[in-house]
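Researcher: I'm comparing several assemblies side by side, and this is the next one on my list. It has 1370 residues spread over two chains. Same procedure as the others: predict the full complex and return the structure.
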Amino acid sequence: MARWMHAAAAASLVFICQSANADEGMWPFHGFPLDRANAALKTQLDQAWLDRVRSATVRLSNCTASFVSGEGLILTNHHCVESCLAELSSKEKSYVEDGFNARSRNDEVRCPTQVADVLMEMEDITAKINAATAGKADAAANDARKAALTQLEQDCETASRFKCQSVTLYAGGQYWLYKYQRYTDVRVVFAPETAIAQFGGDPDNFQFPRWCLDMGLLRAYENGSPVKSPNYLRVNFAGPAAGEAVFVAGHPGTTQRLLTLAQLKQLRNVELPQWLMRYSEIRGRYIQFAQGGEVNDRIVADQLTGVENNIKVRRKMLDSLHDDTLLARKAAEQEALQKSIAKNPKLKAGFGDPWKDIETALATERGLFQELVYLENAAGFQGRLAVYARNLVRGTAEREKPNASRFREYTDSALPRVEQQLGAAVPVYAELEELRLGNSLERMREWLGPDHPVVRRLLAKESPAGLAKRLVSGSKLADPAVRLALWKGGSAAVAASDDPMIEMWRSVDAEARAVRKVYEDSVEAPIRNATERIARARFASLGTSVYPDATFTLRLNYGTVQGWTENGKPVEPFTRLSRAFERATGAEPFRIPDSWQRVKDRLDLNTPFDLSTNNDIVGGNSGSPLINAKGELVGLMFDGNIHSISGSYWFDDVKNRAIAVHPAIMREALSKVYSADALLAELGK
Amino acid sequence: MARWMHAAAAASLVFICQSANADEGMWPFHGFPLDRANAALKTQLDQAWLDRVRSATVRLSNCTASFVSGEGLILTNHHCVESCLAELSSKEKSYVEDGFNARSRNDEVRCPTQVADVLMEMEDITAKINAATAGKADAAANDARKAALTQLEQDCETASRFKCQSVTLYAGGQYWLYKYQRYTDVRVVFAPETAIAQFGGDPDNFQFPRWCLDMGLLRAYENGSPVKSPNYLRVNFAGPAAGEAVFVAGHPGTTQRLLTLAQLKQLRNVELPQWLMRYSEIRGRYIQFAQGGEVNDRIVADQLTGVENNIKVRRKMLDSLHDDTLLARKAAEQEALQKSIAKNPKLKAGFGDPWKDIETALATERGLFQELVYLENAAGFQGRLAVYARNLVRGTAEREKPNASRFREYTDSALPRVEQQLGAAVPVYAELEELRLGNSLERMREWLGPDHPVVRRLLAKESPAGLAKRLVSGSKLADPAVRLALWKGGSAAVAASDDPMIEMWRSVDAEARAVRKVYEDSVEAPIRNATERIARARFASLGTSVYPDATFTLRLNYGTVQGWTENGKPVEPFTRLSRAFERATGAEPFRIPDSWQRVKDRLDLNTPFDLSTNNDIVGGNSGSPLINAKGELVGLMFDGNIHSISGSYWFDDVKNRAIAVHPAIMREALSKVYSADALLAELGK
């Protein structure tokens, strides 16, 4: 299912990656190596092909998608639609569990917090940013860079109808302004039951062979009508052949392929183990909570799936970092670069030792890591209500500053999305809020220690669970009208509020801001400076024949349909429907839903189900179209195999495989199981 | 609280450790460096002192303890008595929560499964074992060694009234037979409430300064009467002075100070991360289960405390292994030894490359690791009922083989303890059994994969939770009479049983045995052979001026009362009662019980509470007496500071500190809070 949480990108660093393997690379559309791809695959792609694919590809808030009809119909994964389905559900009715099937346009329901972006223009702003930071010391340059990026976004949005977002590529080797057509009225059209969308559940996640109908359909609306999307991808229900050239357009979230050795060790030694312990415990709490009855099971399902997916990703990332051969390879690359710099007097001048500077900054980070995680990154304050409180306290205060001086998540460009989320009517389940907040407060006490000032203040006379219960039951922030009133009232209204959740965040905001300030000035700034120096040195020797690390911005890559060899045995690139029935146990997550059982006799059990390719994708590519050389959609990416997770750090062309839903099973399901004839007609079949 | 689970020792390897620091070392009583200790501490200990301390020290099944009166009164930690208290509790009454206070000998209640051992004699059997294995290849030598150890234990028990257990020291450099006086009638006399015994709970665990009255009193009985224990330790209620020479006698469980670099990496890369994820999830399930009401909270408390303690230990162990300086130090030591061997033709002859042999065996282990953990080590089958089923199926089958051919845990010497546990009337809570078994089956499916034959067979038509519910509700093994009947009926009775828990284990026993066989022959045997070669080389250059790794057998070490420096600030070695009241929040685990609040005015708030020393101890030393040069008990060890956890791999004399309860707070509590006047009189005050 390869879910990817967009929030993770904010703190990530970006680097230049050299494409060592034929099919490796997540190329921006302004840097796609057309000649190289055509030569490797014997295809004849041209700029028009690229333009059409670009404007057919959609970025959701959490995933990728694509237009598949001229009337705004958007195909993505079930797991990308799941949070929308959960927001539309209640204690009584779960669209996650039961699926969703709009019989007509009138039945299509707006997703409370989803957006759909289409990339329209890309502008290189590198020179402007470099001018803004020239001659400044680390921390000042860091501030100036952020201010300049905010200003350029603001100017762009003033001058155009687009949503403008800056993009840092090559660790600051390039800065771009990406301009999107944004649709904020995105409606759910179709989703199958989770039981078939995520057949095999967590045990099968990141495995192949696989049998998941991980599809969902949305539709973009504007002014109450479906948008026109003439550049859509036609679905080719026959799917691709083994060995056929295929392309994935999408938004890979984060890769860290050129972190320094010291940064990889920081992940391995500090961040990943602690994260895995924290979320393994939450997993246990969610599972046990779900045992409390059908309602509990229903309201926690979406959260639990997300947690389990992230655990699987991170534990394989940790495995990768525990693989000494990977670290040795990284060390050798680093050493080779250092040697080539030492030999080049031009590069060497003023170069300093960026690797050492990074190590120093990382030592600083270790010293403030727990406070950073628990206070500023809010690991101590989990749950929807706590997030609302934080956004209200922070957002109203930041909004009153000049745009360029604000935290980047509250600039004018970002505020409409903040407001959309504050105003969205989504369910807030008190039991789940208590669980999440209580757990996070308890772990904050564990890791900051019971004598930390914030912990002492909050928990002087209460247990974490007791405090959580009091805050959740006393807060009115579950009501969107209350949230919007505070938001509109600004910092004065927030300061006057006696909502206990607001009071709680007000009491810790200063300390959280203080930690962030130290982090930005003493960790982020010197690392940014050092990585820019490393990037420049790398650029000097390799030029733009390299691709930047993933940043949840639009990329294209190429490959072929193929399996791989596991423990000496070949893994075929296609699965078929029959085997899903054979593997079914009748119990979740290996249960084939009744809707399928009822029509089993009429199904073609030989229908291709899922397929594997060697495209280089990671989380964020979920929902990406798999495209053939003719520009047709021949698959729907939803996952990678287990080896693909180390794709965060390097691309292993021998074993790293991407996984897609085959179009044939979509047709079989829409036609025979879900009787979605109008949709099939719209899809051209 | 430093709980230490004895089971962990079974699979551990033992090595020779060189004592680098003045106060480092866990010395067996037959190898204690009297002259060196007397010189370092300016004391005059002699053999009589050693003999008296040895016969006053007690080994419990999970901890250390000591006789503190002539009438069999045994002092240990509250957390060492906690499992007994839990076994005596019910859904309605928790002695863990409320404490236990026998007003007279008649009120002392037998612990269902506890034993108390006193070490009486030690016999060197190295030559006999070496003779048994001489000239044999790895796997055959491994089998022959186990058979010889079993035979020697059997002969010893036939010839004496002692419980005889073989001990492997110096990784097979020495073999000993330890002969114990065993008491199986051990009764609980006194325990305070958990709230004060474990004040600060998990957040404070492995921290200092500290305020825990982590004490419990037991009494050994024989033929219905208290045993005579003339060699008891007199309690000196004044406690020790700062800087005073102090000694700890006890049973450190496991250290791994001379694992090879490859073995340390196996722990770091494979074992510890997976263990931490598994138990963090269980922690979450237990905490959420406890939210289900007072009864749930009560019946899971003991398990949860144990899990949290083990998590803290292992996460600091992982931190240690992620400390590159530690690994570099280990690498340097290994290299130095390799060089000294290369220079010595006598050592070099026939030495081979044991480090390489270990690496090969570890690679084999990685290939079977999940099956080993989930099947043979039963991580897939957790809970009391599953353990009973396994012991019944395995134990009855093994019992019918010749003694020397059995698994070592079912030899004649081991059987009485197996039978004691099968026959003990202890509570079995169905809800908790379902949780534990369901969770472990679910994780087994995750890690072995849904298509593993065992997983397919067990879960072909059921969910893990569904299967757990069916097995727990259908099993009769909660009844000790049912268990004993099956045990007495032998393998025929077990084969005929239709108890679903028995059926479950019967269906997987062959596969579990098969994995064990491969592990023993292809991992354990070559590693044992290789480590013996390394040990001999080390012996050759260092002799017995070194101490063996910990093996849950009796050791003595020496040190002084002292604090340390943390972040540039001194930590004083004593805490006082007043600060406990200041830190109390009123909510668990920072709640001071009513019994103390009621008499607060009468308490001397200046009473010393806990203290720290630089003795070299680890888990298993819990409950150990802290002894002064006069042979008086001046403290009760119950924990180490956070730095002590890396004591598994090395002793850091700068920061590694042991923590004890001060005798003064015991007197204050027994006198003013618990009115235990008879006990105080027996304790000589």
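Model: For your comparison table: Chain A is about 45% helix and 15% strand.
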